[in-house]
Amino acid sequence: MKNSGPVAIIGAGLSGLSCAQALRAAGVEVRVFERASAVGGRCATRLWQGHLVDLGVQYFTAQTNEFKKELLTRLRQFRPIISPILDQNENVVSAETGPRFYVLQGNNYFAHVLSLGLDLRLNTAVETVRPSSGGLECLGETYRAVVSALPGPLTARLFDLPFAPTDYVPCLVGLFEYAGTGIGSARHCYARLLPEGREPIFSSYCENNKVGRIVGDKTVFVVLAAPRFSREHAASPPEKYLPLLARENEALWQVPAEKATASFGHLWVHARPQDDHRHRVDLPPGAFLCGDSRAESTVENVWLDGVQAAKQVLSYLAEVGG
Ligand SMILES: Cc1cc2nc3c(=O)[nH]c(=O)nc-3n(C[C@H](O)[C@H](O)[C@H](O)COP(=O)(O)OP(=O)(O)OC[C@H]3O[C@@H](n4cnc5c(N)ncnc54)[C@H](O)[C@@H]3O)c2cc1C
Fold it and tell me: Which of 50, 141, 215, 320 gives a 20 to 30 Å CA spacing to 158?
């Protein structure tokens, strides 16, 4: 495989990075393009008010032996979340998918570890990929194969497809800091999950349950807004929607509003793929997909899907004479 020429991976989220590492392990030269100045995509961690806060992925599962092995060999610094997740009736939401884990240094650290050793081009957006003689053209160079590890609508734009492999709904996230530790019911549980259709909160997490993340005598919540609320407020400035989320979150955790010390809002535009909006798309020869435009949107599944996409690229290269 050494002479097969570089394969381009567009997007350095977990799926793109896992695909890149699997190809690299098979001896294929890969080049990863990432629009942002850092890797990880929706597996994002933010240094906020001195705390390390997970802004996207809150926790991950490790159900498959393949993913467990990856965590143990490449990462190691991950821990289970001990406190329960409760539903609206204060019942424990069973962990059917096994223990929930987080990374001590912030969940984004997993992406950082996955990017080590790769030919990674940060701050480099790829807007179009076009068939050209001998492969696919991307940023003026020809690649034998290109993998889009982008959310569906961005993949559609990349390959000029008539529709996206899947549609996505946006998600607003609010970070809320309060004076005092273990306030309200924060000492009893890690997260609260609300039923589908209930607005404006979808789920709320207390970051104090992750060891060493919160500094000083503070409590920090990460609140994921529900789909309708997120859509309605997607264009609003944070000062419009944060007070609405804060009020609901304070009621949820019985936290006194006067203890609030800071808040922050973020919009994930392509947050959650809609399972009932998946379409089959025809990609040009040599083009492949990975990530949640075709796999279930969890860390473990998009990582596995990156490995799967790498296998597809390898058989393609073998077929075309790589
Ligand atoms: C708020 C939120 C909470 C979540 N919580 C959890 C959770 O607790 N547990 C869990 O398992 N999953 C969770 N998920 C789902 C999980 O984040 C995703 O399934 C996973 O991170 C998707 O990874 P990906 O690599 O497929 O895509 P992404 O992470 O979106 O990566 C795509 C990358 O492509 C880059 N990019 C975009 N356009 C271009 C371009 N034109 N050129 C080059 N690069 C480009 C982006 O900057 C990004 O880095 C959550 C998602 C959200 C939004």
Answer: 320
Q: Which long-range contacts (CB under 8 A, 24 or more apart) does 240-243 make?
A: 241/172, 241/174, 241/265, 242/174, 242/176
- Say how many C-beta atoms besides its own lie within 10 A of residue 79's C-beta: 14
Return the percent helix, strand and coil in the chain, to nearest 5. 30, 30, 40
User: What pLDDT, in 10s, does the model give residues 227-280?
Assistant: 999 999 999 999 999 999 999 999 999 999 999 999 999 999 999 999 888 888
State if pTM tops 0.85.
yes
Ordered by where they begin, the domains of the chain are 2-83+101-165+279-320 (3.50.50.60), 168-274 (3.90.660.10)
Q: Which atom of ligand 1 is nearest to the CA of 268?
A: 53
Q: Which amino acid residue places its CA nearest to atom 8 of ligand 1?
A: 58
Q: What token pair was written down for 67?
A: 């993913």
Which of 97, 120, 150, 274 has most ligand 1 atoms within 8 Å of CB, for mutation? 150
Distance CA(152)–CA(273), nearest Å, equals 8
Measure the CA–CA gap between 278 and 286, rounded to whole angstroms.
22
Measured in Å, residue 43 CA sits from the centre of ligand 1 at 6
Question: Would you say residue 5 has pLDDT above 80?
Answer: no
If we measure between CA atoms, which residue out of 202, 179, 208 comes closest to residue 54? 208
**pLDDT for 37-78, tens place per residue?**
999 999 999 999 999 999 999 999 999 999 999 999 999 899
Instruction: Provide the 3-class DSSP secondary structure of residue 110.
Output: helix
Show the ligand 1 pocket: residues with CB < 6 angstroms.
10-16, 33-36, 41-43, 56-60, 125-127, 149-151, 154, 171, 173, 224, 268, 271, 291-292, 297-299, 302
